[in-house]
């Protein structure tokens, strides 16, 4: 039997949590033994989010096959076991690009190419493509109902109902029931208008997820049901939760999965949510906390580091710890005196953190601040974890301040540097286009057996996802290794350096890949787990923690 479809749309305003809603429903269906897949359509004309500013779009999530995708794909992977690829996230730009390519090839045999049927057929074919090996496919339509850009996608899912029938398609509409403080009441009118907008294009929602700050009274659910032509039981009060991993449990309590099974005429076993219940219990009843300072370039907008923050949460939760994060703008650590030398102010900014992390990024802005943060972590023996740019800057800092290579830098930041510790990938020399021109996707890494990273993974060979243009220059390997830096992970052919460590430091690990993309709440990533454990051990050593947890932290770091 072909897959059944759940279409998730949003109304009233954006950022209501359609992605988390789709991921949570997928999680509940998986818990009942169904095979699920998820995909997202984004209405913008960019081919992918790879060239978009993190301040505009947030994080770019990378899949194993090297696709640069929307951050909601991260939610899908964290909440389910769906194997996502470039086929799971399409934009208007990619759809139109495919249609125009076919038109130029003559595939349409001289016909007039139009939104209906050519664009909508492309969208429907994309949905069918990802549904081949699953029972239920959840399809999220980005943006808000009423946007011009999203009309072709909404028309396509309307046609899917016509093609497949009511028993094989389900419309879930996420909407807002705002609390008006002046009137001291919740208002249903925005939801009514949003559903009316859906009806005007031929779509009748089956389930309404009503986002609100307050509980939705029964009489209000009845009112919404009457005006929006849905069952009262299908009007779901989707209140804000303190922890996003509580969402599957909250939806289960509201019988969302039972409604889905009823409408799609599916029979399954009972959902087993024991592990999620245990996870949420630990989140609300931590034994202690761990405080991490993240020194980044885009910290004003936390969604720029969405997967990173969640991976740290996963690592902390594994040891029943609450994560406390302080976002530090890298430029703020760049203060210099009259002679151009760094002042000691940055040390005061960084004192007191249990661990310091420098994440990925592009461009010169904030680099000197990152170097100061890394120097502080190295000299004060504070656990350090560097990711992508965080590894490159760690190598530059070591070259400058330990090896004495004054002016050492990356070719990205200073093309005239006498010591080009980091340089552009050879195969990208002369390539000036920005989109998709990086080392992207899953690459194999081979590690030294006695390294911290190998101990954390419990293996000497791994596969991790990349997104970068610059690499460590192995011409400078000898002086850095002689001075104590250890290159503990490389590609199997030893061309590219993947992991560096300082063995004399309590915990100093930096990697060229992005491990955050593979972390799940129930399966925390080994490097994040080992980093938060080492950071907690540092907290214990400085008398900031409950010492009874120190042994657990010690076991994880030294295992």
From TrEMBL:
Gene3D superfamilies: 3.40.50.880, P-loop containing nucleotide triphosphate hydrolases
Coiled coil spans: none
Active site: 388, 514, 516
Superkingdom assignment: Bacteria
Binding site for L-glutamine: 361, 389-392, 412, 469
Binding-site residues, Mg(2+): 72, 140
Residues reported in the UniProt entry to bind UTP: 14, 187-192, 223
Name of the protein described by the UniProt record: CTP synthase
Organism this protein belongs to: Terriglobus saanensis (strain ATCC BAA-1853 / DSM 23119 / SP1PR4)
């Amino acid at each position: 039997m072909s897959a059944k479809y759940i279409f998730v749309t949003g109304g009233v305003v954006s950022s209501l949590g359609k992605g988390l809603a789709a991921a949570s429903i997928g999680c509940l269906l998986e818990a009942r033994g169904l095979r699920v897949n998820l995909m997202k359509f984004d209405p913008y004309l960019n081919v992918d989010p790879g060239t978009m500013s993190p301040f505009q779009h947030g994080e770019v999530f990378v899949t194993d096959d090297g696709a640069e995708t929307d951050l909601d794909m991260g939610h899908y992977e964290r909440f389910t076991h769906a194997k996502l690829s470039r086929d799971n996230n399409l934009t208007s730009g990619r759809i139109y690009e495919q249609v125009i390519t076919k038109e130029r090839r003559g595939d349409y045999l001289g016909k007039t190419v139009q939104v209906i049927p050519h664009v909508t057929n492309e969208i429907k074919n994309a949905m069918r493509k990802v549904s081949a090996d699953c029972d239920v496919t959840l399809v999220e339509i980005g943006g808000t109902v009423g946007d011009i850009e999203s009309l072709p996608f909404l028309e396509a899912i309307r046609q899917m109902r016509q093609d497949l029938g009511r028993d094989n398609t389900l419309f879930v509409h996420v909407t807002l029931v705002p609390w008006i403080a002046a009137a001291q009441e919740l208002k249903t009118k925005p939801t009514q208008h949003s559903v009316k907008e859906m009806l005007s294009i031929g779509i009748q929602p089956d389930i309404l997820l009503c986002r609100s700050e307050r509980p939705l009274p029964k009489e209000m659910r009845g009112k919404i049901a009457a005006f929006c032509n849905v069952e009262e039981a299908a009007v779901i009060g989707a209140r804000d939760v303190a922890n996003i991993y509580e969402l599957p449990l909250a939806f289960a309590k509201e019988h969302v999965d039972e409604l889905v099974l009823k409408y799609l005429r599916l029979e399954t076993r009972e959902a087993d949510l024991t592990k999620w219940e245990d996870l949420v219990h630990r989140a609300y009843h931590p034994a202690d906390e761990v405080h991490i300072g993240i020194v980044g370039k885009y910290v004003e907008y936390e969604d720029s580091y969405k997967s990173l923050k969640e991976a740290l949460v996963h690592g902390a939760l594994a040891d029943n710890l609450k994560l406390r994060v302080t976002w530090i703008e890298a430029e703020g650590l760049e203060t210099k005196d009259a002679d151009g030398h760094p002042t000691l102010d940055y040390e005061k900014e960084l004192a007191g953190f249990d661990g310091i992390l420098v994440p990925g990024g592009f461009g010169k802005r904030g680099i000197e601040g990152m170097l100061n943060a890394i120097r502080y972590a190295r000299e004060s023996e504070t656990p350090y974890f560097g990711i992508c740019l965080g590894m490159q800057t760690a190598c530059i800092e070591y070259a400058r301040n330990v090896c004495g290579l004054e002016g050492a830098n990356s070719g990205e930041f200073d093309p005239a540097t006498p010591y080009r510790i980091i340089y552009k990938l050879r195969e990208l020399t002369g390539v000036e286009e920005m989109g998709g021109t990086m080392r992207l996707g899953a690459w194999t890494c081979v590690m030294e057996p006695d390294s911290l990273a190998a101990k954390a993974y419990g293996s000497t060979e791994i596969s991790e996802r990349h997104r970068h243009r610059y690499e460590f220059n192995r011409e400078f390997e000898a002086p850095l290794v002689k001075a104590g830096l250890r290159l503990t992970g490389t590609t199997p052919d030893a061309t590219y350096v993947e992991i560096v460590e300082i063995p004399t430091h309590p915990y100093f690990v930096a990697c060229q890949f992005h491990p955050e993309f593979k972390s799940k709440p129930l399966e925390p990533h080994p490097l994040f787990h080992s980093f938060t454990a080492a950071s907690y051990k540092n907290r214990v050593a400085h008398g900031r923690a409950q010492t009874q947890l120190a042994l657990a932290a010690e076991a994880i770091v030294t295992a």
